[in-house]
Specification:
Oligomer: single chain
Order of helices and strands: EHEHEHEHHEHHEHHHHE
Distance between the termini: 32 Å
Strand order of the largest sheet: 3-2-1-4-5-6-7
Number of helices: 11
Shape: globular
Mean pLDDT: 97
Length: about 270
Amino acid sequence: MSVYVVSGVSRGIGYAFLTELTKDAQNTVIGLVRDKASTAKKISEDETMKGRSNFHLVTAELTSYESLKKAAAEVSKVTGGAIDYLIASAGYVSLFDTFDPLSYLGETQPKELEEDMKKSFNINVVGQVHLINLFLPLVLKGKAKKVISLTTGFADLGFTNENGIYTASGYSVSKAAMNMAIAKYNAHFGEQGVHFLSVCPGAVEVGMYKDCTSEQMAKLTPLWAKFAAYQPNFKGPVTPEHAVGDMKAVWESTTAEKDGGAFLSQFGNKQWL
C-alpha cells in the first residue's frame, strides 16, 4: 500500500495521476485542488472512477502558504501523519510567452512580461517550495520517501541551445529554477533516504492550444519543425495517462543513492522527445 499526495488533480496530467494511481485499490491518493466541489463533480461523472473510494480531495492553493499549511494538516489527519509520495504536478504554463521570444515581448509588452514572469516564478518555484516544505515531515515518516517535481525539457540548457528553442521563456526559466531547488533538497535530505527527482512528462495533449488563433498557431510552426529535426520519430503529444505511466516508470527505476536530485525525461535520460 502506498499513499500519494498529488497537487493539481482537477485536470490534465494531475487528473490522470488520480485516475491512474487509484486503479490499484491498495493505493490511497490525496488530490490537492483549488475547487474541491467542481473536481468532485467531475469525478462523479467519470465512468472510469466509478466504484473507487481510495482517494480524498483536499482544498489547497499553491500561491497561499496558509492554504498549503492547512492542507498539510488535513492530509496528516487522513494518513496518520505519513505519506509515501509527494507529486508536485500543479503549475502555471503561460500562453503569454508561448509564441514570441523574450526580446520581442520586452520591446512590445514589458509590463505584461514582468508580471507574467513573476507569476511563473511565484507558482512554479515559490509555491512548490512551500508545498514541499510543508509536506516533507509527512514524507520523512513514509516508506517510499519520494518527492517528484514535474518539469520540462525546455528547462534543459543543451536542448535549448542546440535546437534554438527561444519561446516559452518564463515557463522554462521557472522550471529551471525549480530543478535547482530539487537538487538543493536532495543535497540536504538525500542522506536521509528521501528521493527528490525532477521528471519531464514529455509532450502531452492537455488542450493548451484549443483556443489559440490561427496567427498564434502559425508562430508555432518553427517549433514543430525543430521538434521534428531533433526527433524524426516524434509522432506528437501523448495522452496524460500515457505520460503518467512514463513518469511512474522513471521514479520506480531510480533511487536516491544513484539519481537523487536529477532532472530526467520521461525516458529516464536526457532525451526530451
